[in-house]
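Encode chain A's predicted structure.
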Amino acid sequence: MSSHQEELNKYFNKDKKLAVIGLGYVGLPIALELARKFSVIGFDISASRVEMMRNKIDPSKELDSSAFDGADIFFTHQLEDLKQAQFFIVAVPTPVDEHKTPDLLPLQKASETLSKVIKKGDYVVYESTVYPGCTEEDCVPVIEKGSGLKAYVDFKVGYSPERINPGDTLHTLTKVKKVVSGCDEESLEVIAGIYGAIIEPGVFKAASIKVAEAAKVIENTQRDLNIALMNELSQVFNIMDINTYDVLEAAGTKWNFLNFQPGLVGGHCIGVDPYYLTYKAMKLGYRPQIILSGRGINDGMAAYVAKKVAQHLIAQGKNPKDSKVLIMGATFKEDVSDIRNSKIFDLYQELKDFSVQIDMVDPYASKEEVAHEYGVQLSDNPGNQYDAVVVAVPHKEYKSLNEDYFKEILVSDALIVDLKNIFKNKITTFTHWTL
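Encoded structure for chain A:
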């Protein structure tokens, strides 16, 4: 029997434990799936979140209570409990700050935590999205410094990028092939064996940790650039008085035309990951042009939409500061509660800069979280006499609405901004505008 198989058997026999650090959108699904095969410790710094999970409640509202059934997992916020584990998976957030610079603080804190509990022979696998080189250049030295251990000799390191898509019930964790990497051949086999136990299509063994990091960051950079192209085209077609969605429908009849649509690009992946790549490239002396250009277009879409609303108000002879606008939707995508990096709040602020009076509603977002993160008060229900409404997120609750609904809440010369074109050919009384 090979040495890596002997090591794997210790986990399958539950002689050794796994630990997942960070139990958000990424960490909790991984921890629960692994806990169907292995003995797992789920660690989160928030005691209140840990208490919820002990009661089979997902704080991120993505998983049902049934997802906790049959899982051999112990949830904790106590550092001491982590010492029982020998294989650690780090799944903490990696956002960017207001200057679009990678914020590695959560990753550094997690690495410091690891340095206090790691032992000789242990494994560490990072899942957080980073730039190529971050795991080995920024995280590993923190563990070494705090533990006194030598990486690759005393403990093994790997990287396996997350592919969690909030709200997606088709491409779930176990249904999507997972990229894995290790610091040497043995670690790669062990890490592949652990993940391979829960991933139905199997794993892809990347050539190196850096390759795995780069693969993750370009997955979302590619999507970002394609959406940026659609956003630029929508502005061009708007000038030409052509409906962008009509154009896309026609072009989509060609077999190799890619199905992307314009929109506000937020969330914890597409609107963030490209900045990790550009940050590292510029540190190495290369300034990416296409990637940053795409980011610039997508980051500017909220201002573009707000300007369109203001122009309509002024064209109707209204003073923006005396006008009321309703924003429907606050989350970064449809049918989820996730408000992280939601560009709807950029739109809110851009409209505020025109002194417009704004109400915002969302059937999924937490009023408390929105108030805490963005300082915005969500309304329980829409009011009436709005001069414009922006249907910003195509929640299923909104897709079922018709023009009669809008007649109840809008003035007669109002504008309906339908960002995702869900009311195409359904609006005849009001001005209907879409990207």
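DSSP finds 15 helices and 13 strands in the chain.
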